[in-house]
Each structure stands twice: as C-alpha cells, then as structure tokens.
Amino acid sequence: MHNWSLIFRRNSPRANIGDDKVKSSGSPKRRETLPLSYSREGITSPAGRSRVTRSELRWSNEDRRAASSRQDELKLTSSTFALTGDSAHNQAMVHWSGQNSSVILMLTKLFDFNLNSVTESSLWRSTDYGTTYQKLNEKVGAKTILSYLYVSPNNKRKIMLLTDPEVESSLLISSDEGATYQKYRHSFYILSLLFHPEQEDWILAYSHDQKLYSSVEFGRRWQLVHERVAPNRFYWSKTGLDKEPGLIHLETIISEGQALYVTCKLQNCTEANKGKPFPGYIDPNSLVVQDEYVFVQVSTGGRPIYYVSAKREVFTPMKLPKYTLPKDLHVISTDENRVVAAVQEWNQNDTYNLYVSETGGVFYTLALENVVSSMGHEGNVMIDLYEVAGIKGMFLANKKTDNVVKTYITYNRGRDWRLLQAPTADLRGNSIRCELPYCSLHLHLHVSANPYTSGNIESKDSAPGIIVASGSIGAELTTSNVSMFITSDAGNTWRQIFDEEYSVLYLDQGGALVAIRHTPLPIRHLWMSFDEGRQWNKYSFTMSPLFVDGLLGEPGEETLIMTIFGHVSHRSEWQLVKIDFRSIFNRRCTEGDYQTWHLHNRGEPCIMGVKRIYRKLKPIARCVMGKTYSVTMTSAPCDCTEADFECDYGYERRSDGKCTPAFWFLPSSMSRSCTTGTTFINSTGYRKVVSNNCTAGVIAEYTARRQHCPTQAPKGLHLVTSEGKLTATLGTNVTFLVFLEEGDGARTSIMVDFGDGHALTYSNVSSIEDGVKHVYKAVGIYRVSATGENRLGSESVVLYLHVTCQLEYIHLSAPFVAVKSKEVNLTAVLWPSQVGTVTYIWWFGNNTEPIITLEGSVACTFSREGVNTVTVQVSAGNAILQDRKTIAVHEYFRSHLLAFSSNLDDHNPDVAEWRLDVSRVIKNSMVKLSEILLSALNQNLVQFTLRPGVQVTVYAAHLSAAPLVDTSENHSGSAMLMLLSVVVLGLAIFVVYKFKRYIDLSEMLNYFRPPWYSSV
Predict the structure, then answer these.
(1) The PKD domain covers which part of the protein (predicted)?
(2) What's the CA dihedral at 921, 927, 932, 938 to 10 degrees?
(3) Omega before 437 within 30 of 0, i.e. cis
(4) What percent of the chain is predicted at pLDDT more than 70?
(5) Is a pLDDT exceeding 50 seen at residue 27?
(6) Domain spanning 715-804: which CATH class is it, in words?
(7) How confident is residue 1001, by pLDDT bands cut at 50, 70 and 90?
(8) Whole-angstrom distance, CA of residue 204 vs CA of residue 214
(9) How far is residue 283's CA from residue 614's CA, in Å, rounded to a whole number?
(10) pTM for this structure?
(11) Is 329 within 8 Å of 339 (Cβ atoms)?
(12) Same fold, 591-637 and 642-708
C-alpha cells in the first residue's frame, strides 16, 4: 500500500516548503507529502502551460458514432463537502492512508508570502472516504497554528503534525489515524524529517542551524546526533549492507570548501564511535548514499574526481571515458545493481550525456548523448529521461541535436535508441503523413512533482504497456499545438486521444482511465475510457462548474474513489467532490475477461533476453479487477545475440554495430583488476547489459574471461593528499593517497619519501588503501615522492607540498629619525619566523602604489623633511597582518645616548605606549634647557617626575662631551643609535628603553628587539 498525500495551493505562486558535486536525481523522497503547483484559475501542467481558449473535443469517427447514440448525460455518483470558514486559506495538504482505511486527513492553511510563514490553519478529518469531514481545531488547540503534516511510511496510522515555529516549536502526534493527539514541545526548528525505511518510530530531524537530531519514539523525545550537517546529506543505513540498522550516513561541514563523510550510531554518535569511510575531505554537498552505492566528489586542481563505493567497500575513482571532462554529474538511477549517471561535459551547457556502469559502479560507457535538461522550481536539475513503469529496461529520453529536440525510446537500458512512430490518424480520422526519421512523435517527459497526480507522462506497474503523455508530432518537440497521446503496446504504436493537455489517472489498476482537462475555466465534466483510450465517455461529476485545484485518488493501484479539490469562485471555501466509480462497473472480472499480450519491439519478442507475456483486460470488458488482481506474466529466456551486449569500458560502437577500442584505450593494459588481485577480466570489447537474462547463443563468444594477471611493471602511479590540496599545516597529520592504475598491485612495493628525511616502504598497494599519514615539524616546501617497484620495473611520481603555519605577529623595525635623502633600512620581523611563502607589501606616506617584495627588508630614502609614515603588510597563506611606524626626517641633527636612573625599572609596565608617554615627559623637562642641554645632562640637572615621590634623573651615557652624529656623506656613524636628537628646527626626544623584565617566550625578544638595541 502507498501513502497518498499531496499539497496544493490556491491564489498564490509556487512556494518552497522546507529545503537537495555528486548529486542524486533519483534519491528517495524525504517527505510523504510532495508539492503540486497550480494557478489561480486552475491546474497548470508541470511545464507551466495552461490554455484559456475554449475548444471542442475531437474524436475519431467511431467515437462520434458512439457519442451520437447517447441522449442523456452520463452522471457519476458524487458528493460535495465545503470546508466552511477556510475561504482565505491558500494551501492544503491531504493524507489518505489506505490499508483498507476510509480515513482522510486534510490540513488547510493561510501562507503569508510576505512574512514567509503560516498565519492560520485548520485540520479536517473524514472517516467515510471523504463524504463528510470534521474540523479538529479544538482537539489540537484552537490557537495552534499547524504548518506541516507527516505520516510514518511503515504505519499509516501514525500521524505527526508540525506547528509553525514562529509561534511555538511543538509536535502533535497521533497513533490512531488522527483521531486524538498528544502535544510535545521541542527546542529546535525542524526543517525536514527523514523516516527510517523499516523502523516505524525512528526519525531523523534536520534543524535550521544545521543540527541533526534523532528520535526512536516517533518524535516524543529527541537526541542530538551531530552539528554542522549539510542539508539533505544524511541517510539511513540499508539492511544487508550496513553493519547495524541504527547507522546513519551523513556529511559534516568542516569549512566553506571542505566536508567529511561520517557514519554514526543512532544513539551514540561520539568521536570514538564515528566512522570515516572515505580517507580525507570531500567537496561540500557531494555525498550521495543510494541503494548499495555511496558517491563522493573531491576536487583537485580545480577538476572534480568522483569516487564510488559499492556494497560499502573501499572507494574507487569512477572511470568515465578518458576525455570526458565533467563539470557536473548526477546519479539518475541505481536500480538493478548498476548506475545510470548524467554527466555535463566541458562543452555542454543545457544538455547532459547518459552513462551506464557495470555492477561495481566504476566503469562507465556512453548510452546517449545530449539529453535535454532544465531547472526545477527549487533550483534542482531535471533530466528529460523517463523510466517506463511495468516494463524492465524501457526508457524514454529527449535528445537535442542541432538545436532540435526529439524523443527517443530504448527497450534494453540504453543499448539501442530509436525515434517514436507517430500516429497514423488524428482525432478526426484524417491520415497523418509522418515519415521517419524526418518526422516522429515527441513527448514531454516531466513527471508530476506529486506521485498521486498526473504530470506530462504517466505509466503504472499494474498496467504494463500503457503510457499516456502530452506531446507533438513533427520534426521536433514543441510547446505549441500540444496534444495527448497513448500507447497500449509499450510504445510501438501511438494514438491521439485529446488535442489539449489533460490530467489522466489510472483506475482499477489500469482497467479504466480518467481524464480532466487542464484549463483555467471552471468545469463540471470528466472523461472515462474502459478500452485503453480508444473510446472516451463524458461524465458530469458536479452540478455547478468548479475551478479544479487538485486531484487525489484512493490509495493503491486499484483506485475506484477519487476526490477533486476546487472552489466555486476565487473567494469561496474549498469544495471537496468525492467521486465513487464503483457504481459504473456492473460486476467482478472473471478469467474470460482477460486476454494475453506479447511484449515486443517492432515485432522482436526477445527484450532484455526474455520473451514476456502479460495478462490484460479485454477492451469490451467493463468489470472491476479489484485488489486481488495481479499482473500475471510468463517469461522464457532467449538465446543470446550481439544485441544483448553493450560496448565495454574503453570501447566505442562503430556504424556497423561492432565495438572497437577507443583511440585512447589500450586493451592490453589490464588496468581494471590487476592492481588488487592475481586475476583480471580479459574483455572481448563487450559486456552483457545489466539485468539481461539471455542464455546460450553467443554468450561464450562475447563474455569476458577471467585470467591470471601476468606480472607487469607498475604504470599510472598517482600521489595526492586526501584533501586534494598541496598545502598542509605545521604539526598536523597529512594523509597521502597512492593509486596504481596498472601493474600487479600485490607484488609491487611502494616507497613514500616525505622529503624531510623520513620515508616508509610498503610491500604492496593494498596495504595503503587508507592512506599514509605523516606529520611535518618544520615549515617549508617538501618534495614528496612515491615509487612503485617490482621485478619488471618501477615508476615514480612527485608532488611538492607547502607546509605552513599561521602568522601571529609582525613588527616593523625602523629608525625613529632619518636624514633627508639618505638611505634607510626597514625590516619586517615575523613571529613565527618561518611561515612559508610570504609576500611583503610596503606603503610609504601617501603614495597610492605600494612596493611588493618577497624579502623582509627594503631600503628607502625620504626626499622631504617632516614626519613620514611607513606601513608594511605581510601576506602569508590566508592571513594578512600589518605594522606601521612614523619616521622623523631632518636635514641635520645631533644625537646623544641617554641613560636613566635605576628606579625607572621598578615602574615599567612593559607596554609600548608607556615608552611614548615617558619620552613626552622627558621632552617637556628638557625643552627649557635646549641651549645648555648637553651640559645639563653631564651635571645631572635634567629630571622629571614619573609619579608622586618618584623623581627620575636623565644623564648622558658618557660623562665626556656628548658625541655628535655627523650627517655629512663622509661620516660612517649610525644615526640609529640615538636616544636624544637635537635638530635645527626644534627638539625631538625619542626614548628607546631597555626593559630588564623578561616574558615567558624568551625567543620573542630576539624577534622583536630592534637592530640598534644593544645588550647590557
């Protein structure tokens, strides 16, 4: 049984309810309720088309005769119920549980698109298949605003309602199909839920702050699993593949460009219990866990590398044809133990190429080029590929060639494709001249966003061979002159059934079809066919015309009850019209009502290696097949022919159908299996199409043989870091991954030289599948090499790894005073001193153009007197630090070395600002004595008050006459040794005081001590 739920909207644009490198286009739906979009006037197709012109339905001549014999209008058994008081509500969610249950739940709400929240809601419940409804607002709380409805996929009696988080964060839980509820508060804002595929009470909840929670009590209690989890990148374990049912696969966010693939236990996700199946970082939003496969993406040098793990084994790079350079990849399907992937290559913009793999998901061959793609309403990529239900191996695809889109069909999983033969006559019975390949039938392949409403194309497992779709006839697919077409023989022949778009639903497992017109106008009729669309009867389902907003059928393929949701006017309440089709069937079907149908492709009965015979209802039978009916099918294997085999990896199909090696592929390389074992598959250039069940015939000629690997020299050695980067941080583990494309991996030793005097040797490749770890203890650029060697030869590969550490501090060493037009040396001192590759950017005064150097020192001159500012910026990795100094430039000055009384040390706080304040005090004390300054210094007459009671005496460092600093060209003395400068234009005091205190990091003194600082 299926859970039937849908959401539809009225009088509003399409809204996003909740929140999906390697991407999955075929992953299971994360919610039981899915969106259906429609316009204010009525239903619109998924392609967004709606017709406003009135048109008359055209039938064939036989249909006209059948219709003309009817005098009275045919009526259906129906009842209408109005949801009183909800006229302002513009969204509705419906759940019809099935399982022989007559209960229907409906949540209507008013969604304010300006506030982006729900402001009103009502909950309705029916226990008679939708004849009447009861309003349950009082049971859930009159003031409670509900925003979403969830249903356990394993027990449809268990219902969960989410309150609007803007008002309160609560869950309302029911275990009796919504009859009674219990409210539970939670402390986080739920964005999405993921139910366990088997355990009915196990749920994962994703919050708005990227946290993942789990519950094993159907939401009554929650436990934090992990923080910083990527949205929609968490998955339940799969029975038979994972070690335990409570395992969770998730992608955690490390930084903007890095993520990790982690596995966690449901109730114990600690660091000790975490698994890391992939050794290294992956690209963000790239984890896909689907059936037995796991996919991740790692970008190296701007180019993505895609990895796959089959049956939870070691990850292996996916092998696309050599010169396929993908810029985007989507996993379309993982059914039948093989992968179908859509790859957008370097020269494609709006199309993708389809590739298919063998069972391991590693080696891919081209199935179809230039398949059309489009963007979905939520920004997701939609590929125009449709898998036909009920017929294994049958697909339809829209291919773009020379800007023309045409529809193709395959019966053998993409091995062969052909155009669709157009109908031979139109609705009027006029002949249609449409000759292949210049003219054919083309179909729109968009599937409805909700599985319980009709899209552009429909097929059912219970009705094999019947496909209903909208499309056009001609040289290409168009969006104008769209009609409805049907095939009842699996695409061999097609008939036109309507000249406008209709929603078509299957009743009674395909025994009858119901069609409702896509129109913005109110309607009161629908159409029914009991003979696979050959003849249609018109029925009225209501007395007053209704604007139709959505449809919902009874759960299960045996649908006989349908509900139409609509409104009489744009401001009226919801009108729910229940239609019971059981009254138009007069009896149960018997064996005499069935006939056999042989599946074929243009007369060829062997499809996917077997002949299949189905049981179908006769066109003249009008009876109910019921819930006990099953599609009885007999099958018999066919002898294998060349058509049962596709080209193997590295081979391409020629115009004569033969598979030959591509120009880049050497069949003798044996690269696919000899790296890990002692045998390999010696390909014939062909491989059997996956799920093909043919036997005997040419199977021995085309099947690859397993042979012992001859020992060969290693070839294709790869060395990369697990993060795909060429940088590493000092003191952290660096993981190197080594891959060998060709050679006997079991007998090839691998030596990894880390470039810092350390090296490791391994006996074979398989012993380092998890990578080789190493920690660097010094900054630098290291030449890392790996060498593979056996008795037949060797091969080496090299990478250069930049080991860096974080720059923490920069000090600009510069003189306080300089002579005009005389060279001055400036030095940037770093801590730590070795941080890797560093760029220095120097700014002088008001210059707008900096000087950029790779050295930490620069010489400069100042051409004008005054105070000049020098700024240096240092760029190291992702850090940029700067320091700034001011230099007084004078044409002439004299300097003298000063000393201070010892009591100054007792009051030194060891900060730079203190030295500046002291220099200002000294200047104020000395300015009055400028003319007799040196004499006063020698006589200890210069004093200043540091603080009350603390008098500091300034005296000359040498009691002899103060030395003069000669500013002429001939003097070799250093002006950088002054503490006191006497200049022509005035007096300037610069204090450079040697601190007698020491800090814990004694090395800091060496880095920050200026070059003019002498030791005492």
Answers:
(1) 737-794
(2) 10
(3) yes
(4) 80
(5) no
(6) mainly beta
(7) very low
(8) 5
(9) 47
(10) 0.71
(11) no
(12) no
Query: In whole numbers, what is the pLDDT of the chain averaged over residues?
Result: 79
pLDDT at 934: 58
> Which phi and psi (to 5°) does residue 86 adopt?
-115, 25
* Cα distance between residue 226 and residue 252, in whole Å: 8
Residue ranges per domain, the chain?
1-44+75-185+538-584, 591-637, 642-708, 715-804, 809-890, 893-1008
Report the distance separating Cα 736 and Cα 728, nearest Å. Answer: 11
Q: Which residue has the higher pLDDT, 63 or 40?
A: 63
Phi, psi of 926 (to 5 degrees): -100, -15
Span 926-954, average pLDDT: 67
In angstroms, the CA 1004 to CA 989 distance is 27
Superfamily of segment(s) 591-637: Sortilin Vps10-D, 10CC-a domain (2.10.70.80)
pLDDT band at 679 (very low <50, low <70, confident <90, very high): low
Rounded CA-CA distance 514/497 in Å is 12
- What's the token pair of residue 458? 């429909």
Q: What is the pLDDT of residues 942-969, one digit of tens each?
A: 677 777 777 777 766 553 333 334 444 4
Please determine, for residue 877, whether its predicted confidence score (pLDDT) is greater than 70.
yes
The SS3 of residue 601 is strand
Q: Which residue in this structure is represented by tokens 């990478």? A: 799
> Which residues, in sequence order, are CB contacts of 432 under 8 Å at separation 6+?
422, 423, 424, 425, 426, 473
The structural architecture, per CATH, of the domain 642-708 is 2-Layer Sandwich (3.30)
Using the CB atoms, write b or e for 484-498: b if 16+ within 10 Å: bbbbbebbbebbbbb
Residue at token pair 């009027």:
428
Q: Is domain 809-890 in CATH 2.60.40.10, yes or no? A: yes
Residue whose pair of structure tokens reads 């596709």 in the numeric block: 646
Return the closest-CA partner of residue 442 out of 413, 468, 478.
Answer: 478
Rounded to an integer, what distance in angstroms lies between the CA atom of residue 243 and that of residue 238?
A: 9
Q: Report how far residue 424's alpha carbon sits from residue 495's, in angstroms, rounded to the nearest whole number.
A: 8
